[in-house]
Amino acid sequence: MKYLDEFRDPVLARRLVGKIRGTVTRPRVIMEVCGGQTHSLLRHGIEAELQGVVELIHGPGCPVCVTPADAIDLAQELASRPNVILASFGDMLRVPGTSRSLLDVRGGGGHVKVVYSPLDAVELAKNSPNQQVVFFAVGFETTAPTTALAVLQAAQQGLENFSLLVSHVRVLPAMEALMQAPNCRVEGFLAAGHVCTVTGFTEYEDFVQRHRTPVVVTGFEPVDLLDGILDCVSQLESGQAEVSNRYSRCVQTVGNEAAQDVVDRVYEIVDTPWRGMGVINSGGYRLRSEFEQFDATRRFATSSGTCSSCDISNDCRSGEVLSGLIKPTECEAFGTRCTPDSPLGAPMVSSEGACAAYYKYQPAVGMS
Hints:
- By secondary structure, the protein is of the alpha/beta class.
- Among the domains are: 64-170 and 255-310, HypD, alpha/beta domain 2 (Rossmann fold, 3-Layer(aba) Sandwich), CATH 3.40.50.11740; 318-359, no CATH class.
- The chain has 16 helices and eleven strands.
- The strands form three sheets. The protein has a five-stranded parallel sheet with strand order 2-1-7-8-9. The protein has a four-stranded parallel sheet with strand order 4-3-5-6, sandwiched between helices. A two-stranded antiparallel sheet has the order 10-11.
- Helix 1 packs parallel to helix 12 and helix 8 crosses helix 13.
- The protein starts with 9 loop residues before the first helix and ends in an 8-residue tail after the last helix.
- The model is unreliable at 1-6 and 364-368 (pLDDT under 50).
């Protein structure tokens, strides 16, 4: 238990591992939805510790990884225009589009600005009246409220040089798509605690009842994750299927209603392409018609493309990784033709990507 000794509470961690082993009567298959949880599971050796008892498979819980290639291409095209500043979080810069990344565009003279908040992009537009500022709005339900606030702030200030390239996606519809796939092996889910902080978890109740699949809301610390896994396998062993909140210090039943209200005011839910997964019903957001003046695709009379954006390189199997069908190490390109310095797909460079986690924490997953 080398890695368990590095936990804040190694005694509790070992106790939880023992309880999981003592509860499981046959190997169980659990998917964690959040890429941050994936990194924690590998960094602390939890996946290796539970080998043969619980198979942890990694879902599409990385919004950067599922952002369509054509959205990234459009961001690059806008950044190359002389009067446009493309503002983005830093984790999008190295993600490949069809053939290059925003970092490549910036190296070629494109106007790409890293910001730490959508409100920083609003301030940038206010201070750059002769430039169009486009914020690349990527993320799950956790970041949608702040981009919605940015739109409202820009509207209040009468900014005519601020817009969004919207690529927000929603977690539950992706889980639904995974469960409906004919090759799905998932028996239970660890739900993303940060998403549920915003959305709450009542929306999972119908999902759980229809699929008879436990959903356990959990955090990101190792003990949080082990506690969530224990809850999930305990339900499976007893034949139960419930929504369980094991992250109550942060997540409330109804979530953050103020954040939900601002999202509902600015965005509407639409079918959305996910890179590597295809179009997912109700899988994302777009700006409502009353805020369409802040839609970069309308402002610049361009299109974000069609489902061709769901495609990825033939050499990259990240679509299968994102769907939990294979481990990153099962991809023939992993660690050879695909590395963080020369990625074939987004999961190798995103800070929440499963491939990046396996590459970074190889000793913890038993690799040489």
